[in-house]
Amino acid sequence: MLWSDPPDEPPEELRHAQKRLRRLGLVMAVASMLTMVLLAGR
After folding, report:
1. Dihedral, 16, 19, 20, 25 alpha carbons, nearest 10
2. How far is CA 34 from CA 9, 16, 21, 23, 38, in A?
3. What is the dihedral of CA 14, 19, 24, 26, to 10 degrees?
């Protein structure tokens, strides 16, 4: 890698999008677990 190469960091908006997707995935996982628990308790 040369000193003139640009840094390998993703752009700001991409980092925000990745953070949102990670948060959405976490929310979906918790929601599906809650749904399974509620359905299993019937």
Report:
1. 160
2. 36, 27, 20, 17, 6
3. 140
List the chain pLDDT tens, one digit each, 42 residues. Answer: 567 777 788 789 999 999 999 999 999 999 999 999 999 987
Residue 2's pLDDT is what? 64
pTM: 0.65
d(CA 37, CA 19): 27
DSSP E strands: which ranges in the chain? none
